[in-house]
Predict the 3D structure of the following.
Amino acid sequence: MPREPTSPVADAIPPRLRRKGGTPRQVLALTLIGTLALGLFASRDLPSWTERFEIPALSRLAATWDGAMAALGLTRPHETLRAAVARLIEVGWGGKD
């Protein structure tokens, strides 16, 4: 079977794989799922992120959401990961020599 000619592209995705993309509906569904996952497991960063918008009601909502996620125990993975990275930094991992 002859190989399909390829032309260089900026993102290095071969043309045969580029044709197998998702539909707009699938992309929307994955975006919503990703947003929900971030909302559940990254709520610790949400209050500081929403403060940048300078909308007090949004900041209060984010703080309330973070409190609810903490009450459910869904902030533990975030806190564990942060603590692990802090320990690694303390021992010199990833630092300049």
